[in-house]
């Protein structure tokens, strides 16, 4: 994943700009805009046209795809999603990620690992990114329900897509895209066998959802409940580091 290098000594250039809209969302924004203009200019129904025009801007904003500055730390596991960290607990990995799938790709095993759950509201960026650099070994789509993605049972009941990455040193990191109440489609940008860089875009979930990430054994979170995570930038953990981190809500 090529990109501009910026560092803590002032190298590179930074500036604010309007974030681009991902191509996946442009068609929805254009459809909403055409319908809004039809009601405003053709039917002269302002009571319907203006709310639809506001909705059009909302659709474009939902599919925004801002640039992210990815930490170049080989031990860092970066957040795969924007959103609020709502759950941190020890659980067994999903069945689809536990065992060898027959392709020679080892799984995460059956022992409990730490799962960090990141809830994305409709106001968050919904482009998901790779948490580490490595090879995508597994991508498994599971149809399911559409209960509130903020609930713990969403990890097992909702429509979801499991991804398993293997770093060059053999460390495995799994994560799961989970659809929510409003979300109705998980869109992948990658396929098994792809070589991915940390922070590289791997897919999106339309309209409100959640992402779970499963930390390797012997690794503790570097974030706390209630913290806001930024995809590709927030370091969720560093492989092999275990220490208590506390936060104070002010």
UniProtKB/TrEMBL annotation:
It catalyses: a 1,2-diacyl-sn-glycero-3-phospho-L-serine + H(+) = a 1,2-diacyl-sn-glycero-3-phosphoethanolamine + CO2. It is found in: Cell membrane. Its EC number is 4.1.1.65. Its main location: membrane. The chain crosses the membrane at residues 30-63. The record marks 208-209 as: Cleavage (non-hydrolytic). It is an enzyme of class 4 (lyase). One of its GO terms (cellular component) is plasma membrane. Is synthesized initially as an inactive proenzyme. Formation of the active enzyme involves a self-maturation process in which the active site pyruvoyl group is generated from an internal serine residue via an autocatalytic post-translational modification. Two non-identical subunits are generated from the proenzyme in this reaction, and the pyruvate is formed at the N-terminus of the alpha chain, which is derived from the carboxyl end of the proenzyme. Heterodimer of a large membrane-associated beta subunit and a small pyruvoyl-containing alpha subunit. Catalyzes the formation of phosphatidylethanolamine (PtdEtn) from phosphatidylserine (PtdSer). Belongs to the phosphatidylserine decarboxylase family. PSD-A subfamily. NCBIfam families: PRK05305.1-2 (NF003678), PRK05305.1-3 (NF003679). This is Phosphatidylserine decarboxylase proenzyme. It comes from Croceicoccus marinus. The gene is psd.
């Amino acid at each position: 994943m090529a990109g501009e290098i910026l560092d803590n000594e002032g190298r590179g250039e930074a500036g604010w700009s309007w974030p681009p809209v991902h191509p996946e969302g442009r068609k929805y924004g254009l459809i909403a805009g055409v319908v809004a203009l039809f009601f405003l200019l053709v039917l002269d129904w302002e009571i319907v046209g203006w709310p639809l025009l506001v909705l059009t801007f909302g659709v474009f904003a939902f599919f925004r795809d801002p640039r992210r500055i990815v930490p170049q730390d080989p031990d860092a596991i970066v957040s795969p999603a924007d959103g609020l960290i709502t759950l941190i607990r020890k659980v067994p990995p999903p069945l689809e990620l536990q065992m060898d799938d027959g392709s020679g790709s080892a799984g995460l095993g059956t022992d409990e690992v730490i799962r960090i759950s990141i809830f994305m509201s409709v106001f968050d960026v919904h482009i998901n990114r790779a948490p580490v650099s490595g090879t995508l070994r597994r991508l498994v789509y599971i149809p399911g329900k559409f209960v509130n993605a903020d609930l713990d049972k969403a990890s097992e009941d909702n429509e979801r897509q499991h991804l398993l990455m293997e770093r060059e040193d053999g460390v495995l990191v799994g994560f799961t895209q989970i659809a929510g109440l409003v979300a109705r489609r998980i869109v992948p940008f990658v396929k098994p066998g792809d070589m991915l860089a940390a922070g590289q875009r791997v897919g999106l979930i339309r309209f409100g959802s959640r992402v779970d990430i499963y930390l390797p054994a012997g690794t503790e979170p570097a974030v706390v409940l209630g913290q806001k995570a930024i995809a590709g930038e927030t370091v969720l953990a560093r492989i092999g580091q275990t220490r208590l981190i506390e936060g104070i809500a002010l």
